[in-house]
Write a structure and sequence with these properties.
single chain, 662 residues, alpha/beta, nine-stranded parallel β-sheet, ASD1_cat, Alpha-L-arabinofuranosidase 1 catalytic domain-containing protein, signal
Amino acid sequence: MKPLSALAVALLATLVSAPSSAAAPAVLTVFTGESEGPVPGAFLGVNHRYTFDGYGTWDPVNNRPVRDVLEKARSMGVRVLRWPGGTVANTTQWKGTIGADRRCQRDGRIEPGDAGNPADDVLSGRLPSYGLDEHLRLTAALGAQAQIMVPMAIGTAADAADLVEYLNTPAGDGINPNGGVDWAELRPADHRGPYDVTRWELGNENFHSSQRYWMSQNENEALEQYIRGGTRRINTERLGKLSTPDGSCGGSTADVPSDGSANQVFDLNYPTAQPDDFELRVGGEVWQRVEVLGGPQAQQYVLDEFRGTVTFGDGRRGMIPPRGQAVVASYTSTHKGYVQFRAAMREVDPDLEVCASWGKPAFVPKFEAMKGNGIPPGSVYDCLTTHPYTHFSGSHTADWDSEVESHDWHVLGALNERQKFVALRDAVRQHAAGNPHLAISEFGALWGPDGGGVYPEYTYSMTHALYMASQWADWLELGVPWVEGNDLSSDGMYTLLGRGRVYSAEAWAREAVRPMFDAGGARVRQTLVGNPQRSPNESEMCDGQGTPQDRCRLNYGKLTATATRAPDGTVHVMVVNRSPVAGDAIDTRIVLRGFTGNGSASVRTVAPERFTSANTRQNPNAVGMSESCRSVGSDAFNANVPAHSVTLFTLAPQGRPGCVGV
């Protein structure tokens, strides 16, 4: 456990002190016998990206997880870990991330284009040293579960089925459910058994215009293509190279001419390419597609339509494209949709949960309307993933005049995302057949003003930790079965482990509430009466260009809370004080119905000096966690909940040992 700062110890004393005001306390009543659904075991999940050695989480020299990362991820209770990531991973080909012969991967973050040229990838290719096998080793070391995002943009349904075979079928039994290569036999020698990955999603945010790739820039057409598949004619695409001339990875699919070297490999933007109408020109001349290259003057190439590569000869077998000449392809990009991907994957493993990732309300009625009109009448989806981000710039709430205004927009943003999630859930319940559920594979608060404006640390500050803790209470109440928020590691903002793998404020909040989720059990009903209200400064909140006037005048409750009952009868109560005002501790009476305790409570709290407090390499202890044991009544007690804090009370039932310190 990390050392406590003097500030944390002092704030702990505040938490357990007598009420500081004469105002009537807020009353949180926990009905411990009234279950409202299970506590998911895969709740404190994290999005994780494969690039840059998993952003410093993998040690490629020693071929193992970074020890410091393991210790910190265990402390914060990571139980499910997404791979290969989000936008950056939309164009990953998993077969090039395993074994010794790794292949360059496209960076999925592309620049939006027009309808004639939907995207032009100009970002460098990545060599995946943190590939699929490494991810599964990291999750195993953490005692966590892997959640796999299957890139649909340049993948095939057969590839996805092969991936299921690789991860979930037995090795050594001679059974090869998908035919061809027995992928289970290619698993690492130290893991012959299946990984039994159950949580899958198809694509990442393909509803965004910059993540459509081959799909139409018309959103309705793109949604239909996501569901049923489709084709797109790509005309005169000037090809680039993911591999650089020295054979390493670092190029892109942005166009480059021939360099006159032997065995050049060029890359398409949008595989899979239909071979029958594929046309390739070098310097304006049409060259011939062949299976095997001919003599030194043969203007020929070999097409791998699935990987999206065009390979030329060495001057003995196949002519070398003359130096400086452009390589231009015209082809039909052809793809399957969600329905075909799901069918191919579940044919290999019928127990899979295959989530559609078009997490917008329009998906639900469109899917139902297409049954018998583009997809088979009995088509279903197992689940739908969504990304309930608060996007400040996109919602016109990034005109921050002060740090306090930013903080208030965070809390109001969390409330807004909860409402949108409920609307999506209700649409699924109203329209969908087969009882699919909603899951969250990314969420958080991001894209404020450039550089953060007046609040540059906002994405790793206590404000962000309070935002995430508020959402954990929401997602638990709404019965979300698995949740992944933030990135595990990154070089910049929006991460649990930032530059130098510094433990963020949110990481501390996760560690504080982790016992609630580790214990499992059931969420129980609770009510909160007398919750003091926060009234943000309207003159600041409402003055931005395009600021939503119906939201900038809203108040919000300073407290939010949730409670669970573990299988052994232990009760956990999480209380979040979202007030940004220093010293704004809230007297709270916690009443436990249907429960008799042993007279003690274990208390974990994260309550830094200011809501803006953030850990950095220069000051890694601005935010920390304190722990204590205090005396309480058997069925009720008072707490003075500090400003801008996350607190977990753990109460054992009568007859069970109390915590140490009473």
